[in-house]
Design goal:
The chain is mainly alpha-helical. Helices cover about 65% and strands about 5% of the residues. The chain has a two-stranded antiparallel sheet with strand order 1-2.
């Protein structure tokens, strides 16, 4: 029996600009997932470093977060539980993109595909550095654990105090 990892608590800014502006990252990851699936079908499962599933999960996670964000409210926060496997997929993909950016030979195909896709499919054109930077920014928001812990602690305390005479 395997140990199931708990969901990761996220406290997200109420203004969804942090995720809406990086829609192209999701589309780029969808492209990488499709390319990795084709490479796997043709007997080259390591051509894009990872199998297609982590790319697909990471892209789907970004899409789900974008879809689930409530209407913009600058003075609010949005609490969300992110499944651990989705967060792990985002970190795996970021690692591959960093390797591609840093000219790792094993990630050369990733670099070529991301560079070509990002330069030709988006206005304004972007490059691998932009994709890496925006995915890093998204992950920084998702894993701001100190803020999440503080908010969760306050909510838990408020709930406990509302049902107890000890506060």
């Amino acid at each position: 029996m395997t140990k199931r990892r708990a969901d990761y608590p996220c406290v997200l800014p109420g203004d969804p600009a942090w995720i809406d502006d990086a829609r192209y990252v999701q589309e780029t990851l969808d492209c990488l997932a499709a390319a990795a699936a084709v490479a796997h079908d043709y007997g080259e499962p390591e051509k894009y470093v990872l199998a297609h599933l982590p790319f697909q999960v990471a892209a789907g996670t970004l899409g789900r977060i974008r879809f689930d964000m409530p209407p913009a409210r600058r003075d609010a926060v949005f609490l969300m539980a992110l499944p651990a496997f989705e967060l792990e997929a985002l970190w795996e993909v970021l690692g591959v993109l960093r390797r591609a950016r840093d000219a790792d030979d094993a990630a050369a195909e990733v670099y070529d595909l991301v560079r070509d896709y990002a330069m030709r499919c988006f206005t304004p054109p972007c490059d691998v550095d932009d994709v890496v930077a925006d995915l890093e920014r998204i992950l920084a928001v998702l894993v701001s654990q100190a803020r999440a812990d503080n908010v969760c602690r306050r909510v838990r305390t408020a709930l406990w105090c509302s049902t107890s005479q000890k506060c």
